[in-house]
Specification:
This protein has seven helices and ten strands. The chain has helices spanning 79-82, 85-101, 109-128, 139-163, 208-217, 232-250, 255-262; strands spanning 2-13, 17-24, 28-34, 53-59, 66-76, 181-185, 190-192, 204-207, 268-269, 274-275. The strands form three sheets. The chain has a five-stranded mixed beta barrel with strand order 1-2-3-5-4. A three-stranded antiparallel β-sheet has the order 7-6-8.
């Protein structure tokens, strides 16, 4: 069979082969063996690199989860994302979250289009953000664009995977929250109004503006995310909520998030208004997307 898909990761198999994990349009998350892919001369070339979008030709038997990959027709390599540390970190986080939230061999066309559109958005912003001699763009100016796409992707994927929090009304009293300061309870799965918040240590503080932005992300495409202008405080509240909510659902913190924290992507805690620890000297191997030769 043939299917459109995206390479998520690859692992060594034996002395010459690779196991490729794909997220495909028709089959969902699947794995395939690429025979001879690690040899110096092989028919796959660079088409098995993580992030590659293409049409994959596979052979498989019913009841077996591991297919044989015959050939790949590359559509887009997203090479520009692999050449920029910020873009690669964001893409690595997207892949890790996708692998943790989606079950194997369960197709979801909307999720596939979300992944592809998010990669395209990162790639486009990367091209627009390349510094020129006359108009250099600093890393600090580019970062919010990457963050916006990543936050959009994270929240949308959580919702599409069945973990959409209830944000329209208070999860306890059922009233529409009208206070400026609210909270979200990951265990309860929804927002708490100003009167019902403060009863549990598991609550994540958040403002009404941040809740409104999260609701709005369910109605727009990734290409429009960059048009939203958020204050630094609201942006950090959104990111802190997404981090805590995702960690509660998965029961762990994803590796690429730890890497981004160490390399300078600040994640302020709204309860203290202090940034998390930042360390400049980090290994690129911590990102989580590895290339297997």
């Amino acid at each position: 069979f043939r299917t459109e898909g995206i390479v998520l990761s690859c692992l060594k198999l034996g002395e010459a082969d690779k196991i490729i994990t794909l997220y495909t349009l028709q089959q969902g998350k699947i794995q395939g063996v690429a025979k001879g892919a690690r040899r110096f001369k092989n028919r796959f070339g660079s088409t098995l690199e993580p992030l590659t979008h293409g049409v994959f030709h596979l052979f498989g038997k019913e009841g077996r989860s591991l297919h044989r990959l015959d050939r790949v027709d590359s559509i887009h390599s997203f090479q520009s994302l692999r050449e920029d540390l910020d873009s690669l970190s964001c893409a690595a986080f997207m892949i890790d979250l996708l692998k943790n939230l989606t079950p194997p061999e369960e197709s979801h066309a909307v999720i596939f289009r979300l992944v592809l559109a998010s990669f395209q958005g990162l790639s486009q912003k990367r091209r627009e953000g390349k510094p020129r001699r006359s108009d250099a763009v600093s890393e600090k100016e580019k970062l919010p664009v990457h963050q916006g796409i990543m936050d959009y992707y994270q929240f949308r994927l959580l919702c599409l995977s069945g973990y959409q929090p209830r944000l329209e009304c208070c999860i306890r009293c059922g009233q529409i929250p009208k206070q400026r300061r609210l909270a979200v309870s990951p265990p309860l799965g929804g927002v708490l109004c100003g009167l019902c918040m403060g009863r549990s240590h598991a609550e994540v503080p958040i403002s009404g503006a941040a809740v409104a932005f999260l609701r709005q992300t369910l109605r727009v495409s990734p290409s429009l995310v960059g048009r939203y202008v958020l204050s630094d405080k609201v942006r950090e509240e959104v990111r802190y909520f997404l981090k805590e909510y995702t960690q509660f659902i998965l029961g762990k913190e994803l590796r690429p998030l730890r890497f981004m924290d160490k390399t300078g992507t600040e994640r302020a805690d709204p309860r203290t208004d202090l940034p998390f620890e930042r360390r400049k000297n980090s290994s690129a191997a911590d990102i989580g997307v590895t290339r297997v030769d």
